[in-house]
Design goal:
single chain, four-stranded mixed β-sheet
């Protein structure tokens, strides 16, 4: 019972104080961070078009995440991902959907009606190349 006394006021009480609005760029940041926590996700907004959008726009929401609201006021999310080579794409995308839905609901208190995941590519791990000392001309050779 002591824990109930320390809980914050109910949502109804908070709403009677005034409106609380969360900018869609904040929601996009939450979505981006939630997706990057999932194993198998390499990057958010990995397409060429998103790269161009990043150059010409400073808006955070233009980088791989689109946020809108449906007729009920629920979030509709589209997220574009670059996945790591070797991960199970469908399972990883589903885990992203769950993480985004849960994190948004937890942080904003608002429901999510859809999380559409678009896989723009698969990142192949970089092959370790020869070190610079292996490719440089030997220093101890004298020029003739």
């Amino acid at each position: 019972m002591a824990n109930q006394e320390s809980c914050p006021e109910s949502i109804e009480d908070q709403n009677s104080l005034g409106e609380i609005k969360i900018n869609h760029s904040v929601v996009a940041s939450i979505v981006r961070l939630a997706a990057l926590e999932i194993k198998g996700v390499s990057a958010v907004g990995g397409s060429f078009v998103d790269g161009i959008a990043e150059i010409f726009s400073k808006k955070e929401s233009d980088r791989g995440v689109r946020v809108s609201e449906d007729e009920h006021g629920y979030y509709v999310i589209e997220i574009r991902l670059l996945m790591e080579f070797g991960c199970e794409l469908a399972k990883t995308a589903y885990n992203v959907q769950l993480a985004v839905r849960d994190r948004l609901n937890q942080m904003t208190g608002k429901n999510v009606s859809r999380v559409n995941v678009v896989i723009d590519g698969v990142k192949v791990p970089e092959q370790p190349g020869p070190s610079p000392s292996e490719t440089s001309w030997p220093k101890n050779m004298a020029a003739d």
